[in-house]
Amino acid sequence: MYDLLIKNGRLVTPDRIFEAEIAIQDGKYAAFLAPGTEVDAKEVIDAEGNLVFPGIIDCHAHLNEPGFEYREDFETGSRAAVVAGCTTLIDMPLNNDPSLMNKEIFDMKMGKISKHSYVDFGLWGGLVGDFDDAPDSVKNNMADLEDLQKLGVAAFKGFTCPNGPLFPTVNLGNVRKALEILKPYNALCGFHCEEYGQVLEMEKEAKAKEGLSRDEKIRAFLDSHDVWTEYVATKNVIDMARATGGRVHICHVSHPMVAQVVKDAQHEGLPITAETCPHYLGLTEDFVFEKGAPAKCTPPMRKKEDMEKLWDYVLDGTLSCVGSDHSPAADEEKDNETRDIWKAWGGLNSIQYFLPMMFDMVVHQKNLSPTLIAKVMDYNPAKIFGFYGRKGAFELGFDGDVVILDPEKEWKCEQDKLYTKGHVSCFDGFEGKGTPTCTIIRGRVVAKDGKYLEEANGYGEYVTPIQ
Ligand SMILES: [Zn+2]
Predict the structure, then answer these.
(1) What is the bridge-based pairing of β-strands 321-322 and 57-61?
(2) CA distance linking residue 295 with residue 59, whole number of Å
(3) In this predicted model, what pLDDT tens digit does every residue of 18-53 receive, in sequence order?
(4) How many domains does the chain have?
(5) What distance in Å separates the CA atoms of residue 398 and residue 30, rounded to the nearest whole number?
(6) How far is the CA of 387 from the centre of ligand 1 (A)?
(7) How far is the CA of 377 from the centre of ligand 1 (A)?
(8) 29 CA to centre of ligand 1 in angstroms
(9) What crossing angle do the helices spanning 196-208 and 227-244 adopt, rounded to 10°?
(10) pLDDT by residue (tens digit) across 137-147?
(11) Where would I find the beta strands (DSSP E) of 13-67?
């Protein structure tokens, strides 16, 4: 007798879609059966011919706890995530206070977040450097990296551009040192790539201009984060991978010129991986002019031809993961009335429509196979962040994670109804087709038909890389 049987599903893997029934026992996949096989199970879920994914991993999400719970905490962020079909997310070490930079902070953070996560979660450890006007207590955590590695963080995250005193920017010396320290562990270091000097100088010049109109300010913001900042920072950290042999991951690649740098490095045999986000694949800088503050993020959205070209690099595997980069804010931090583009929070409220938006773009707009979703939003992140063996595929003994998705079901993002703490989203009013109807983590339903199950609060487990 199995605990759970999911029947009448079309299972989606990176290679193919096939009909099979999934039996789950003790939270793990216990059997994959031919359709119609008679077996006993305590609970049966009928997938009704819909698509079934072996989970969705969001490799890049900021849930803001501890420190900025007024923007988001693990409870609100993770309930929105499971409604969107996410079964595992990897939380960023910022925007937090304190940022996750040593064992003491890890213990404190885990004490808080493990109590109320709906979703299984991994953690990015912080990689902070010597830049910025920050107190010494939060600078340079090179001596703490091995501790964090032993605590099972999935990867380390560093910022190459000005980022404020809570998460001091890394210089190239810090990058090099971190890669040297972490190479023996085969650990992954991910970077927000925008080159410090260019951003600093161009922002300073742009902000000093007086009397600019709203649109002129937006133009100046976009220009001070242009592709050259991203390109140079990406080249720099790749060179540090070249120098040390350490594994580097380029976060949220926004532009094909940057993706080409990644591709060249991969062809050279360097240990480089990279991700992009739905907003770089579906939106352009025109959208920033249209929406203003709610659409501010860095790197910013690019021109239409760049957005279209970026797809080539997802399809050829250069950009092997797609993450949400959910970076929530309080409503007033995204308010066009009181904040111009410079003062607005930089980051998007995106987690609750992460899978629906990607599915609509991939399947309905681009006419591509849902197998691409399984690849870039589950299998590849599991492989890169070390969860494969437990997550990322329909394999016996892996966690019984299941996302049932109705490919034709229509959805509309209405910001007032978001389960996140903040309610201003630039995706308000977006519509599409294809949305999850059931999210199951380790054999247990955590969300159904657009609603999270309250009793799953605190069910989410900490997931660590399998060595
Ligand atoms: Zn981010």
Answers:
(1) unpaired
(2) 21
(3) 999 999 999 999 999 999 999 999 999 999 999 999
(4) 1
(5) 9
(6) 20
(7) 16
(8) 32
(9) 160
(10) 788 999 999 99
(11) 17-25, 28-33, 41-46, 51-53, 57-61
- State in Å: Cα 370 to ligand 1 middle: 25
Residue type, 284: T
C-alpha 197/C-alpha 292 separation (Å) is: 25
104 within some domain:
yes
Q: Is the pLDDT of residue 195 over 70?
A: yes
- Distance between Cα 264 and ligand 1 center (Å): 24
Strands 88-91 and 57-61 come out as parallel
DSSP string, 286-317: HHHHHH-GGG--SSPP--HHHHHHHHHHHHTT
Instruction: Determine, yes or no, domain membership for 31.
Output: no
Q: Cα of 78 to ligand 1 centre, how many Å?
A: 16
Beta-bridged to residue 4, according to DSSP, are 24, 43
67 lies in which domain range? Answer: 56-384
CA distance 276 to 312: 12
Q: Compute, in angstroms, the gap from residue 401 CA to the centroid of ligand 1.
A: 25
Complete edge-to-edge strand list for the sheet that includes strand 272-276: 57-61, 88-91, 120-126, 155-159, 188-192, 247-250, 272-276, 321-322
Residue 418 tokens, joined: 């978001």
In a domain, 456, yes or no: no
Pairing, β 451-452 against β 247-250? unpaired
Q: How far is the CA of 61 from the centre of ligand 1 (A)?
A: 6
360-387: b (≥16 Cβ within 10 Å) or e: bbbbeeeeebbbbbbbbbbbbbbbbbbb
Q: How far apart are the C-alpha atoms of 450 and 22, rounded to whole Å?
A: 22
**Domain harbouring 345, CATH code:** 3.20.20.140
Ligand 1 centroid to Cα of residue 255, in Å, is 16
The CA dihedral of 81, 86, 91, 92, to the nearest 10 degrees, is -90
DSSP H helices, 157-271, are 172-182, 196-208, 214-224, 227-244, 256-268
In a domain, 238, yes or no: yes
Signed CA dihedral, 444, 18, 276, 302: sign only: negative
Ligand 1 centroid–CA 34 distance in Å is 42
Centroid of ligand 1 to alpha carbon of 327 (angstroms): 6
CA 415, CA 193: separation in Å to the nearest integer? 30
Report yes or no: 199 and 166 within 8 Å, Cβ to Cβ.
Answer: no
Q: What pLDDT, in 10s, does the model give residues 394-436?
A: 999 999 999 999 999 999 999 999 999 999 999 999 999 999 9
| Percent of the chain with pLDDT strictly greater than 90 | 97
Give the Å distance between the CA of 396 and the centre of ligand 1: 33
Cα(260) to centroid(ligand 1), Å: 21
